[in-house]
Amino acid sequence: DVDVLVIRNGRAWQISVREIVVGDVVCVEAGDQIPCDGVLLGFDGLEVDESALTGEPLDIQKNLTTDPFMLSGCTVTA
Question: What is the pTM of this model?
Answer without folding.
Answer: 0.85
